[in-house]
Amino acid sequence: MSDIKSLTDALLRFRDERDWQQFHNSKDLALAISIESAELLELFLWKGNEEADRQRIKEELADIMSYCLLLAEKQGLDVKDIILDKIEHNKSKYPVSKAKGSAKKYDEL
Amino acid sequence: MSDIKSLTDALLRFRDERDWQQFHNSKDLALAISIESAELLELFLWKGNEEADRQRIKEELADIMSYCLLLAEKQGLDVKDIILDKIEHNKSKYPVSKAKGSAKKYDEL
Amino acid sequence: MSDIKSLTDALLRFRDERDWQQFHNSKDLALAISIESAELLELFLWKGNEEADRQRIKEELADIMSYCLLLAEKQGLDVKDIILDKIEHNKSKYPVSKAKGSAKKYDEL
Amino acid sequence: MSDIKSLTDALLRFRDERDWQQFHNSKDLALAISIESAELLELFLWKGNEEADRQRIKEELADIMSYCLLLAEKQGLDVKDIILDKIEHNKSKYPVSKAKGSAKKYDEL
Question: Which residue windows are coiled coil (chains A, B, C, D) (predicted)?
């Protein structure tokens, strides 16, 4: 079994043991992802680029990714496929010839 | 090779072909995760819980998870381990006996 | 009339001419505030602390504050009062003797 | 004195008594706005549109608006002007004839 599949299964098991499926509509899962992302962001507030606490980065990243896996599962999306598709899509938005060494957005390149 | 490892490798290859490693400090990766999460959230704005466009959910989820994988890699974190650790941690924060069927936060249970 | 009152009135007039009150429940207004805040954040992505475009900061700040004024109005909150109350509250959370020159959160002081 | 001016003055006084101006660069103020916005959002997580705690909405709105006022002041922006300008701008993006009763984004109208 793939590791994404086994992680998703572990998350679903945790959820179902608590009867939480009833709360996990797609909109609230999207809220949860934003909220956890802001908790990650807070670790860097008023700090230098590499000054956040690594233990807490670890926990917040785990939370964000867990809700992402749950939303992907709810939507019937294969995480591996959607990331590989997005990389392909970004290759045409950000061709190496234009994007190399530049932090500009594709519409400013 | 695991899924997560092969996705991370594809993301690093995409990044390095464009010389973008120089921009990818941990703080800005955390910003990118929050920004992409809000783009996901926007798909649900003024809408019902399941009314967002699935194609766009797919793309925004891919963006969020891509930056999460890049930040995990930068911090030397194993995504599988950190999610499994967090599930274990949450089992004690949210024991089935207290949390079943409740959407309350652990400190209100 | 106070500035805040006249701004709120202008926002309500804009909203009501478009029959948008029906969409403006408190939860979606909170989503809108988060989404606009992330658009502000994006202006700083991969950039130095003072490198964002001032014209766009202006527009995003206006959007965030507009939704804040609309949510305050919906909740029957007086913006001036709630900010002054919060400053008083923060004075005890962050006493000058402890907080001076420190960026720590109150629970780490 | 206008109420926005007097609130900004109170916030600056609070900040300067603690020597916090050194931390308040524009990028971190934008982070703070996003973080506080997500704290507001969290009050609605797994809840109906009007089920959040009003006392806590009050506090989070105050935090968001305080950081907005501080960023506006740092950028030399007049809050009243920028909101009135944005309303004018939105009048052309969302003409009543097209936008009435519709929650669509301007580029989908």
Answer: none
Angle in degrees, CA D37, D43, D49, rounded to 5: 105
CATH of the domain spanning C3-99: 1.10.287.1080
Q: Cite the DSSP H helix spans in B1-106.
A: 3-17, 26-42, 54-74, 79-93, 96-99
Among candidates D34, D46, D103 on the partner chain, residue whose Cβ is nearest the Cβ of B46: D103
Rounded to whole angstroms, the Cα distance separating D67 from C38 reads 14
pTM of the model: 0.97
Per-residue pLDDT of chain B (109 residues; tens, 9 = 90+): 799 999 999 999 999 999 999 999 999 999 999 999 999 999 999 999 999 999 999 999 999 999 999 999 999 999 999 999 999 999 999 999 999 999 999 988 8
Q: Determine whether A47 is exposed, middle or buried from the number of CB atoms within 10 Å of its CB (0-12, 13-18, 19+).
A: middle
Where do the domains of chain A lie?
3-99
Partner residue opposite B10 with nearest CB, options A37, A41, A84: A84
Q: Do C11 and D83 touch (CB under 8 A)?
A: yes
ipTM over 0.95: yes
